[in-house]
Design a protein that fits this description.
Blueprint: E1 6-9, E2 19-23, E3 32-36, E4 41-46, E5 51-56, E6 63-66, E7 72-79, E8 84-90, E9 95-100, E10 107-110
Antiparallel strand pairs: 1-2, 3-4, 4-5, 5-6, 7-8, 8-9, 9-10
């Protein structure tokens, strides 16, 4: 976000939604966000930090799950039932990658004819 914060809000029909800050410092500019609805975590990409990070919905911690070999991470998506995370990265060699939601078992899925991948 422009404010370099991560917010959460409950959406209820016909009610005023009140947002609360999950992460206030150290987030950098976020490019995309994905919510893990099984384990209540939030993942985001930061091209300025060259990292994919995670926190829980209360913001109790921040961890970089992928912070090596990234140029400008863009879109991020999670598949919590399988424990997978997918993301795109812009760079001299743009690519789409997959790993475990903890950043383990990282593999490149696509590089051929990939220019500016987004989600």
């Amino acid at each position: 976000s422009v404010e370099k914060r991560l917010y959460r809000s409950k959406l209820k029909p016909e009610a005023v939604s009140i947002r609360s800050v999950i992460v206030e410092d150290g987030i950098g500019k976020t490019d995309d966000v994905a919510v893990d609805w099984v384990y209540n975590n939030v993942y985001w990409t930061s091209g300025s930090r060259r990292a994919i990070s995670v926190t829980n919905l209360d913001g109790d911690f921040i961890a970089d799950v992928v912070d090596e070999g990234l140029y400008k991470p863009q879109a991020v998506a999670v598949y919590p039932k399988k424990g997978w995370m997918f993301w795109s990265d812009w760079g001299n060699t743009s690519k789409i990658e997959k790993s475990g939601m903890d950043g383990s078992n990282r593999i490149v899925l696509a590089t051929d004819n990939v220019v500016w991948p987004n989600g």
